[in-house]
Design brief:
By secondary structure, the protein is mainly alpha-helical. It has 12 helices and 11 strands.
């Protein structure tokens, strides 16, 4: 059994012991350190947690990670899934305060990929069936010709008007979630899922050149997070010349803008996403590895994990910092991305990293 890094161990303990996963299995969007409470349970974040917990199980062999992943997946399949409308809502009402009735394409893909990760680890058919149903919803409810609607209002499933915010507009970032279609094609053998991914890939390559255009530097940092999703979404086709070129150019642009903006605003997940993209691109022969830059990004990401006295904070990763001050969010996605980036960097340094895009959290 490979020995995990200390970053991996500590982050895993945060997932298990911090209370970010609530008793019903759902995972909160983040922990607010200034208010000392969790945000609402998010179906997307629960999907990310399933992927992260399965990764931790596979890397350590510890059954408690698999048990936590199973609780989260069962919450998604048995509680969160809207059976009447066959769709995953955005958030879950666990405290008597109904969430806004929305559904996101991006969330659906993250959930489907989490369920597929658990399916591969357990071979329990309910997770594959639920992932396929989610993939069908992504195609049926969100697809609109060459575009994919990012947000629907429930229960009527009408598309919300597009907004300048990246998460409320179609864009190349949606390719990360479209990876669920490619994964479903591999697991089910159904060509329609592969065709859906290929269409999303073509659309992402067309729209990407304009995605980072924004005069506001802090908004560019948020867009770099989404840009990382675009780079990740291309990894299953990294052998194609047009994708390899887009990955190389995308890594260079992401690194340049991150270094420019980080003195004012930095996000831990952006460091981790850039590092993961570097490592996968190198291992898949799509781009050379700048080891000095990778070491810098690994160190910067790890700096957001603190040994805090509060168990709800201890060893989780903070979301980011502005003006040298940590922002008051300890974040499951930041923690998942950073623990994986640190572990992959360790594997790369040891010469044992074998890339498999399906394992990307």
């Amino acid at each position: 059994m490979p020995q995990p890094s200390s970053v991996l161990d500590r982050a895993g303990c945060w997932f298990l012991n911090s209370g970010i996963q609530e008793p019903g299995g759902g995972v909160a969007r983040y922990y607010r350190t200034d208010l000392a409470r969790n945000a609402r349970v998010s179906t997307e974040i629960t999907g990310y947690a399933v992927s992260a917990l399965v990764y931790l199980f596979l890397r350590t062999g510890r059954e408690e990670y698999l048990a936590a992943a199973t609780r989260a997946a069962d919450f998604l399949v048995l509680k969160a899934w809207d059976r009447e409308h066959a769709i995953f809502p955005f958030e879950y009402d666990s405290n008597g305060q109904p969430p806004e009735p929305l559904a996101y394409f991006f969330d659906s893909g993250i959930i489907a990929r989490g369920l597929l990760a658990l399916w591969r680890a357990t071979r329990r058919e309910q997770y594959l069936a639920a992932a396929a149903a989610c993939g069908d919803s992504m195609a049926r409810d969100f697809a609109a010709g060459e575009r994919i609607h990012p947000v629907l209002r429930l229960p009527e499933k009408t598309a919300l008007p597009y907004e300048p915010r990246w998460s409320r507009s179609p864009g190349c970032y949606q390719l990360k979630s479209a990876m669920a279609w490619n994964d479903l094609a591999e697991e089910t053998g159904e060509a329609r899922f592969r065709d859906l991914y290929e269409a999303a890939l073509a659309a992402a390559l067309r729209s990407a050149p304009r995605f980072l255009d924004d005069p506001e530097r802090e908004r560019v940092m948020d867009r770099l997070h989404a840009w990382g999703y675009f780079l990740e979404g291309m990894l299953p086709r990294a052998a194609r010349p047009e994708c390899a070129q887009a990955i190389r150019e995308g890594i260079a642009a992401m690194a340049r803008l991150l270094r420019e903006i980080e003195p004012v605003f930095a996000r831990s997940d952006v460091y981790a996403q850039l590092l993961r993209a570097r490592l996968f691109a190198h291992a898949l022969d799509a781009a050379p590895l700048d080891r000095e830059a990778a070491a810098y990004e690994a160190a910067r990401a790890e700096a957001f994990q603190l040994d805090h006295a509060d168990p709800r904070i201890r060893h989780g990763f903070w979301f980011g910092c502005k003006g040298g001050e940590l922002l008051p969010y300890v974040n499951p996605v930041s923690t998942a991305f950073c623990l994986q980036a640190a572990d992959l960097w360790r594997q790369c340094q040891a010469g044992g990293f074998h890339p498999e895009p399906r394992t990307l959290i």
